[in-house]
Design a protein that fits this description.
Layout (H helix, E strand, L loop, with lengths): L1 E4 L1 H8 L6 H14 L2 E5 H14 L2 H13 L3 E4 L3 H13 L7 H13 L3 E3 L4 H4 L3 E2 L1
Parallel strand pairs: 1-2, 1-4, 2-3, 4-5
Helix pairs in contact: 1-2, 1-3, 3-4, 5-6
C-alpha cells in the first residue's frame, strides 16, 4: 500500500506536546510493520521543516529533514508545473473550504498518483473526498 504523508502527521511525530503525537507514533509503528510505502511532496517537506523549526526548534527540524532526505521508506515527489496548475484550480474551486494552497498541491498530487489515503490529522482531506488514515 502507498500512503501520502501530510504535514500534520510529520509534525505530530516530531512534537511531544502535539495532541496527535501518540496516535502518530502508533500509526508509524503500524506503517513499519505493514511495510507501507510513504509518499510526501517537496511542498509538504518545506512546510514541515518550517513548522517544526518554529514550534519545536531548529535542531529538531534539521534532524527531521535529514531523516526524510535519507529515507528508504518515504519518497519525496516534486510538485511539477502541471500538478501546481491543477492545485490552483482546486484552490479556486474550493473557496468555501478555507484550504491552503499546499493542501491543494497535496490533493492534486494524490490524484495524479492515484492515492486515496493520507496519513494526516487534517480534516480538509476528508472534505475533498480523500481518506484520512
Amino acid at each position: 500500500m502507498k500512503l501520502f504523508v501530510d504535514t500534520s502527521a510529520w509534525y505530530a511525530l516530531n512534537d511531544r506536546d502535539d495532541q496527535y503525537q501518540k496516535q502518530a507514533v502508533e500509526k508509524l509503528s503500524r506503517i513499519k510493520s505493514e511495510r507501507v510505502e510513504l509518499i510526501t511532496s517537496d511542498y509538504i517537506f518545506d512546510e514541515s521543516v518550517t513548522l517544526i523549526s518554529l514550534r519545536v526548534g531548529h535542531s529538531k527540524a534539521v534532524t527531521f529533514g535529514d531523516a526524510i532526505m535519507k529515507s528508504r521508506v518515504a519518497s519525496m515527489v516534486l510538485v511539477s508545473d502541471d500538478v501546481r496548475l491543477a492545485a490552483f484550480e482546486l484552490f479556486r474551486k474550493y473557496a468555501d473550504k478555507d484550504l491552503s494552497f499546499t493542501d491543494c498541491t497535496s490533493f492534486a498530487l494524490m490524484k495524479r498518483l492515484k492515492l486515496k489515503k493520507a496519513f494526516t490529522f487534517d480534516s480538509h482531506f476528508q472534505q475533498v473526498g480523500l481518506e484520512m488514515w
